[in-house]
Amino acid sequence: MSLDTSRISLTFPDGNSRDYAAGVTPAEVAADISKSLAKKAISAKVDGQHWDLQWPIDADAKIAINTMADEAPALELIRHDLAHVMARAVQELWPDVKVTIGPVIKDGWYYDFDREEPFTPEDLGAIEKKMKEIINLRDPVRTEVWDRDRAIAYYKANGENYKVELVEAIPADQKIRMYWHGDWQDLCRGPHLQHTGQLPADAFKLMSVAGAYWRGDSNRPMLQRIYGVAFRNRDDLKAHLTMLEEAAKRDHRKLGREMDLFHMQEEAPGQVFWHPNGWTIYTTLQDYMRRKQRADGYVEVNTPQVVNRKLWEASGHWDNYGENMFIVEVEEDHAREKTVNALKPMNCPCHVQIFNVGTKSYRDLPLRMAEFGSCNRYEPSGALHGIMRVRGFTQDDAHIFCTADQIEAESAKFIEFLAGIYADLGFDKWRVKLSTRPEKRVGSDESWDKMEAALANACDMAGRPYEIFEGEGAFYAPKLEFVLTDAIGRDWQCGTLQLDPNLPERLDADYVGADGERHRPFMLHRAVLGSFERFIGMMIENFAGRLPMWLAPRQAVVASIVSDADDYVHEVVAALKAAGVRAEADIRNEKINYKVREHSLGKVPAILAVGMKEVEERTVSLRRLGENRTETVTLDQVVADLAAEGTPPDLR
RNA sequence: GCUGCUGUAGCUCAGUGGUAGAGCACUCCCUUGGUAAGGGAGAGGUCGACAGUUCAAUCCUGUCCAGCAGCACCA
What we know:
Blueprint: E1 7-11, E2 17-21, H1 26-33, H2 35-40, E3 43-46, E4 49-51, E5 61-66, H3 71-93, E6 98-99, E7 104-105, E8 108-114, H4 121-137, E9 141-146, H5 148-157, H6 161-169, E10 176-181, E11 184-187, E12 204-213, E13 222-230, H7 234-249, H8 252-258, E14 262-263, E15 273-274, H9 276-295, E16 299-300, E17 306-308, H10 309-315, H11 317-321, E18 327-330, E19 339-343, H12 348-356, E20 360-361, E21 367-376, E22 392-402, H13 407-424, E23 430-435, H14 445-461, E24 466-469, E25 479-485, E26 491-500, H15 502-506, E27 511-512, E28 518-519, E29 522-531, H16 532-542, E30 556-560, H17 566-578, E31 583-586, H18 592-601, E32 606-610, H19 612-617, E33 619-624, E34 631-634, H20 635-645
Parallel strand pairs: 1-5, 16-21, 20-27, 23-24, 30-31, 30-32
Antiparallel strand pairs: 1-2, 3-4, 3-5, 6-8, 7-8, 8-13, 9-10, 10-11, 12-13, 14-15, 17-19, 18-19, 21-22, 22-29, 23-25, 25-26, 26-29, 27-28, 32-33, 33-34
Helix pairs in contact: 3-4, 5-6, 8-16, 13-14
The chain binds one RNA strand through strand 12, strand 13, helix 11 and helix 18.
């Protein structure tokens, strides 16, 4: 601690410290250490904060000088400064374009522009070229702190209305930093590189252009957003582009076609035509879920698809979600008015109807009511995506009717149930999000305290850490969401556990308590997979089509090498089928190479080739998907092995 | 829903103001081949739908439908 306020002490990562005049910049500190460091430096870490090399340091601090070797700050600065460089390139090419915002995102950045003409792919090439020119200029970066009025006046004079709005939105206690490289100016809090020449001209790429609302608000103007990706060097960029190609190869829409799982067509947008192969996956998964649910104390029900609007009015869906419901109107000659129904968008109101039949006792609770409920929602056209976001789908839905006291134990029980299923399905990376009370809500703070605590405690009981998402809960109650991470690192929110004191109230559900009085039950909405359509789509991409044997629609193909082996092929198929293996014969007049290629592309886990040698020895030549070696196995052995591997995990 | 792009054979894609082509898949023939495409022949299309411009539209214009990317949405 230096006593003289004009002197400060900076401590380096190695523990040594040096004194400097207050207001020293990291650039000066770096220069003080070595000439080469001064040149290589890109930014600093000052008391844990990412610090521009030009920002003065006014008090004692820990300091570390960053170079391109420090991955996180390097990528941050590269992507950030490329956003500025891109904005400058655009304005140099088209001076009338207005700039807005350009943040760093995963793998890169974007920048939103206001321009009448749409950007074309050719424009992106021209912008990239201009960006490289700007990088080569090695223009130093300069920042200044301005006062608000000056910044507003400046942007007004330049006609940059979006920037005016941004400046006005900056909280009064925050500095307004103005940024330049060359003569080009932007509003930016930084930090930044020393000069544009520090940017890797060969390690970025402009990817796409798309519309985006100003400030994310669909009532405001639509801007044009250009996306870019950037890395520290060319190899990293190439690796990223290769990864994108790999992800494209996993696309469930492409694999769905190649594996003959399903198709979709214009006449039924957002709805799936399941083919035999795809439906096998679906029913296999559903059978598994049904067994798991039964074992966990659920009863299964089934409820109507077409339900009169009266029920949706009572549940509140008609008012709140009417626009997203499929309406079915029926004209009846004898009726005074036409009957208006809606296809059910969710199952809960129907489940309450079942609950409401007869008088329920506290002894009936908790009542776990499950349905593989077919739902239809009129999703906005732009939201549809393969079988992942559809208008007709089936949830692995259930509602647990319980008392307030039972919420915690039921929630914990559900988390364990879900954990077992994710493990069976091959997902070991998943996390829990706890969404808490939003600003607009109903119910007292005490009741929110209790509900949030119940969910948090349930996570603790199940031994699962959770992240809190403040204000993300529904207006009536908090919820848990279960997010799993797939094989290529993408997150999918699948499971959910939503508390609900609201719907039992609206639909007047009650039970008789031990005290002989009527009480309102709580409802827990819960799902593990979410929807079968989405979950299967996600699994196809996760496994790149190579589903675990028990879920693979075609588990084995027995292929003849010569037609004299055909009879034996049929015998092998029959033996496999008898053992419960989904097996097919391929005795087409084609070479074995051709058959192997076709079934490999079809992602069949086991190809059993049979020639005269196998016929004589009563063996098969087994080739597993993804391997290019083969193995000779006796018929009995291969039947036993494939049957065992094809057994669902809960039946092993 | 919004912005942009796209829509030609089952799939992937060429192409033209004078009503169309390739490869693969499909059917048939030859071939019986030992682990990722053997050879030949044939069949297959209201060029997304509807209007308009034109002597003539798959091609140009408009509207609609669907798909793709992003945004917004996701009870």
